């Protein structure tokens, strides 16, 4: 057998440690996971009710076109139904886009550090990955990313807000970038944390699609909507672009449960608003802590924060783990002395900061 050469250099995705495993390993009753930017407040009650109903239909395949969700979401976003594509999480949309655009003769441009799945999927397709260091302030260096484009460049990935820094690309920067990107290059704007953003100069990206047919926006129900388990993400782009990538999508890639819950969750915007408010208060707990202890952090527009503790991240990670707190070590993310911590409930944040204070 002759497996693709590039697969030999890849490792499977390393997820945050599961709660059950940590409980067993360390003999703990209570374990709090603040490692994968899940919503600590769960999801809307309306979504849970919709799931109860849908459970009667488990024997039936889902609607492969996600028609009901498509209609509901197109109303919510004020876009046409044909400008949407659904994925088994936005992770799958990253895969679909890579399958559609990349091969051995092409290259793609990402920030370093950013969401690792862009590179991972690009490598599987055999494409060259050009990684452009982020700026001192954590933002994408869009000028350098532009300069790296050549005639074989197929995709530029812009993660805004960026994971793992939590920083965002301001409207003026994004506009200037889009106006200069050659039309043969697809720009993927990953807005997984869109709902959490409060910055006033964060661009409203959907209206930009009209002028930029080479733009696709990715969003998800996994983060603020609190439906990570159900795997529903979506892309928004010109109808022509969506039509071109649809054949690369699996026929039944989103589940009945996912579609039903997402429809209900969209109708409960009060839930989102209350989570965003509590998240902002939680972020402030971490900022206050960092200021008190003289620690550097990136101001975040997300439900996580990257804090530099000036000591090996893996050690801090391990010490927190033993006390029942799962966070993300910055080591594998390109920040060897930082932790990426998901904003939890007020009490969870207090508890974790108390432990961290003792360790510092
Ligand atoms: C979490 C995350 C995703 C993936 O979300 P799913 O919809 O659950 O696959 C995509 N992009 C970024 C930047 C993320 O942080």
UniProtKB/TrEMBL annotation:
Pfam families: Aminotran_1_2 (PF00155). CDD domains: AAT_like. Residues 30-354 form the Aminotransferase class I/classII large domain. Its EC number is 2.6.1.9. The modification N6-(pyridoxal phosphate)lysine is found at residue 223. InterPro entries: Aminotrans_II_pyridoxalP_BS, Aminotransferase_I/II_large, HisP_aminotrans, HistidinolP_aminotransfase, PyrdxlP-dep_Trfase, PyrdxlP-dep_Trfase_major, PyrdxlP-dep_Trfase_small. Keywords: Amino-acid biosynthesis, Aminotransferase, Histidine biosynthesis, Pyridoxal phosphate, Transferase. It is an enzyme of class 2 (transferase). Pathway: Amino-acid biosynthesis; L-histidine biosynthesis; L-histidine from 5-phospho-alpha-D-ribose 1-diphosphate: step 7/9. It comes from the Bacteria. It catalyses: L-histidinol phosphate + 2-oxoglutarate = 3-(imidazol-4-yl)-2-oxopropyl phosphate + L-glutamate. GO terms for molecular function: histidinol-phosphate transaminase activity. The keyword Transferase applies. Its cofactor is pyridoxal 5'-phosphate. Homodimer. Belongs to the class-II pyridoxal-phosphate-dependent aminotransferase family. Histidinol-phosphate aminotransferase subfamily. PANTHER family: HISTIDINOL-PHOSPHATE AMINOTRANSFERASE, HISTIDINOL-PHOSPHATE AMINOTRANSFERASE 2. This is Histidinol-phosphate aminotransferase. The gene is hisC.
